[in-house]
Design a protein that fits this description.
LysR_HTH_N; D-Maltodextrin-Binding Protein, domain 2; 3 domains; DNA-binding transcription factor activity; alpha/beta; 12 helices; WH-like_DNA-bd_sf; nine-stranded mixed beta sheet
């Protein structure tokens, strides 16, 4: 073998930090040693791996090809190290990016089950909207994503997990709360508090509502569901959220799901990952455990 694991570590850190000096700091080595390791790797592979723009380093075609293979190899090394230390065959780490609704209503039970059965598996969780999770995967910040919105990026593979439905919601004191059905014209003149653009919930709602109403009176946009629900409970606004997110408020009588016959907004929660990534036992473990929890739930 021409190259070393240390050289691959340097390559991965430079790809992540886009800087040799920052990569050296992350690896606690000198800049000259990091620069030499990267130079040796490129020489041994007989290919340049980065575009060099001053101090900034960005992956070229060969670097983008190498990165998932380097990540897989380094991940396997960490699994070996942790597994031998703990005598646990399921070990290592996986970074999960999740959009807000599945992060709140699916991920906690999943992480708890994995912690219970595989105590040496490290799980990093990062909560962003769907757009952010997709960007994080493509930027190699996450190994796996769990989203609630659409994803048609051909660079990513996907696996549906479970069904979900969006509903129009009002506070119990809203004028529409006592109506059997609400018309589109009534929705058009209402004031709305919605998820921010880039959120999967917002994307699906916009696609559905704009077939009937070209422009809504959107008063506020927030990225936190708890803030949106707190405002809607005041009685002035409508919103559109997952049935999972509003179920508790509805059960307490604080919120009312409005019936709008023209709007049926069903979707899937789905896992996504980079299509070019090599097969991952940890990824398959997370997917299979999540599916099991959904089935028994």
């Amino acid at each position: 073998m021409k190259f070393t694991l240390r050289q691959l570590q340097v390559f991965q850190q430079v790809a992540e930090q886009q800087s040799v000096s920052d990569a050296a700091k992350a690896l606690q080595m000198s800049q000259s040693a990091a620069s030499m390791a990267l130079s040796q790797l490129e020489s041994q592979l007989e290919k340049p791996l980065f575009h060099r723009e001053g101090r900034k380093m960005t992956l070229n075609h060969w670097g983008r090809w190498l990165r998932p293979h380097a990540l897989a190899l380094l991940g396997n090394c960490k699994t070996i190290e942790m597994g031998m230390q703990s005598l646990d065959l399921v070990s290592g780490s996986i970074s999960l990016g999740a959009s807000q609704t599945p992060a709140e209503f699916v991920v906690p039970e999943l992480v708890a089950a994995l912690d219970r059965d595989f105590s040496h598996l490290e799980i990093g969780l990062h909560v962003e909207n769907t757009e952010g999770v997709i960007a994080g995967l493509l930027d190699y910040r996450y190994d796996l994503g769990l989203i609630e919105g659409h994803c048609d990026d051909e660079r990513l593979s996907l696996a549906p997990l479970c069904d979900d439905e969006l509903v129009i919601v009002a506070g119990a004191d809203h004028p529409y709360a006592g109506k059997d059905t609400v018309t589109l014209s009534q929705l058009e003149v209402a004031q709305w508090i919605l998820r921010e653009r880039g959120a999967g919930t917002r994307e699906i709602f916009d696609l559905s509502i704009h077939e009937h109403i070209p422009r809504l009176r959107v008063h506020r946009e927030y990225d936190q569901v708890s803030v949106i629900l707190a405002l809607v409970r005041q009685g002035q606004y409508l919103t559109c959220l997952s049935t999972r997110a509003v179920a508790e408020g509805v059960a307490r009588g604080e919120l009312v799901m409005l019936r709008v016959p023209e709007l049926i907004m069903k979707r899937n929660f789905q896992f996504i990952w980079r299509r070019q990534d090599v097969s991952s036992e940890l990824r398959e473990l997370v997917l299979s455990r999540a599916r099991h929890l959904i089935q028994i739930g």
